[in-house]
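Researcher: I'm preparing a figure for a lab meeting and need a structural model of a single chain. I don't have an experimental structure, so a prediction will have to do for now. The sequence is pasted below. Please return the structure as tokens so I can convert it later.
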Amino acid sequence: MQDISASLGLALSLIASGDGDLYQIILLSLRVSLTAVAVSCLIGLPLGALLAISRFQGRGGVLVLVNALMGLPPVVVGLLVYLHLSRSGPLGWLGLLYTPTAMIIAQAILITPIIIALSRQVIEDLDVEYRELFRSLSVPWHGRIGALIWDGRFSLLTVALAGFGRAVAEVGAVIIVGGNIENLTRVMTTAIALETSKGDLALALALGIVLLALALVINALVMSVRLTAERHAYA
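Model: Understood. Here is the structure written out token by token.
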């Protein structure tokens, strides 16, 4: 209990003092995770919608695969990205290893199956409601996808939040491809792992409290935006 009280006091003092290193870590964490979520949504939402409205042989197997990929081990993803981005890998010439871009790629790979699977369920439920209407109006498949994504936009915000939660808490993949380099690739989770390994449990707990607070604030903001938009949309 004493350690927790000390870490809480340290976290508050670091925030109040405007500690440059802390804010740099926070901003990098947000930039990496939010960019990864944006990339994953650009890829995952259309694919989830396409999977929701499509009926084809083997669809059940694809659904099983997508759901299984939601549990991708982060260290395995990190290793695969590392092998591709390392100097001897096929993408080594890009020089992306140990950069924030490599961390974004790893997080996006982890998040995209989550976005696909959850958005597919949301949009499939909507498609059941509107299927006959679309059929009577002869709406093409790409028009159906756009309409369903737009109509389900409020529910899909929750899907994006689920992806963000996975991204911002990720440590295994980002530490492999990012290297936890000070002032370059050190994010909240890797900083916590480093301080724990150094035995500085008070600072590690302080960083954990800050990370939790950030996640709560972002979730509260998104939910507030969603509720406000819903009230205006259905007023």
